[in-house]
Amino acid sequence: MVCLGNICRSPLAEGILKKKIKDANLNVEVASAGFVSYHQGDPADRRAISTAAQFGVDLSKHKASIFTKKCFDLFDYIYVMDEANLNDVLSISRDKEDHKKVDFIMNELYPGENRIVPDPYYGEAEDFVHVYKMLDIACDAILEKIKREK
Ligand code: 4NP
Known about the structure:
- By secondary structure, the chain is mainly alpha-helical.
- It has a single domain (9-149), classed as 3-Layer(aba) Sandwich (Rossmann fold), CATH 3.40.50.2300.
- The chain contains 6 helices and 2 strands.
- It has a two-stranded parallel ribbon with strand order 1-2.
- The model has no long low-confidence stretch (mean pLDDT 98).
- The structure holds 4-nitrophenyl phosphate.
């Protein structure tokens, strides 16, 4: 799961999918990363933490990290939130195989529409809830896809 700061959207997506994977008794690695070094090592945004907690998802242990080329080797799917994240990820992709792993997370629900998950950082608490709900249904679709592929 990739966004810009790795403190709002991608930690939410990571926490949501991890919970669904655990509840389904599956064994799948899920992680998140961003692209700005000034948030490296930071916890998730307090609004992301409290929104997630409202829905039973724990983000209290999150530490922001940076997306690197190695992520292409470690993961089968790389989900981005918006066009800027897509460009950031693709700017360090090495070949077609890397490129093929990357997609907008909302394309799991609306294939090919390239809908974005809006950045809630400069928004209000309700923007975090809106983002949470988008990511929740996208992660339902990802879970179904994982089950089909098992
Ligand atoms: P995120 O939100 O990409 O969803 O983690 C942001 C967090 C921090 C900043 C931008 C977006 N920032 O510019 O510091």
